Amino acid sequence: MPQPVPDKKASNLRLRLISAAILAPAVLAVLYIGFPFVELLVLAIAVGASWEWAGLCGQGRVGPAGRLTVAATALPVIAGALGHYDLVPWILLAGLVVTLVVAWRGAEGPAPWYGLAIFYISLACLGFIWLRRLPGDGRELIFWLILVI
């Protein structure tokens, strides 16, 4: 009699639920505590998201343009986390130009998508940091946002 094949979707779901049960309390604690832990968490998320995006653009390979995308995404988040919001547009622009030039010259894939990652991920992360830092209601707004999502 043939053995039943394990349901791969069920094992993935189990693993995701276990991961969520372990990580959710830690993330909620970080969001409650605030600076500098929120900024470090958001930076880690920005780096991970931009690395994933660069891998998608490079068809599984993260080349020079992909690594520049990660750096150009992380640097504005670092500047914002340190309170230098006046530098953010310049860092974004410089990162965008350098990344696009490298992507077009190296023919690493769809160059405009690398640029989109820089703006999309950086600005979302900066907005999250800005919301968390709002005096008085920042923490409550973040928890409400997470609850809604």
Question: What does the model show?
Answer:
The model has no long low-confidence stretch (mean pLDDT 91). 79% of the residues lie in helices and 0% in strands. The longest helix is centred in the first third of the chain and has 26 residues, at 8-33. It contains six helices and no strands. The protein has helices at 8-33, 37-57, 64-81, 88-106, 111-132, 138-148. With 149 residues, the chain is an all-alpha fold. It is flat.
Helix content estimate: over 70%
Beta strand %: under 5%
Q: What class would the helix/strand composition place it in?
A: mainly alpha
| Shape verdict | flat
Average pLDDT: 91
Number of contiguous helices = 6
Structure summary, number of beta strands: 0
Distance between the termini: 46 Å
Largest sheet, strands/sense/barrel: none
Integer-rounded radius of gyration: 19 Å
Task: List segments where confidence is low: pLDDT < 50 over at least 5 consecutive residues.
Answer: none
What is the string of SSEs from the N terminus onward? HHHHHH
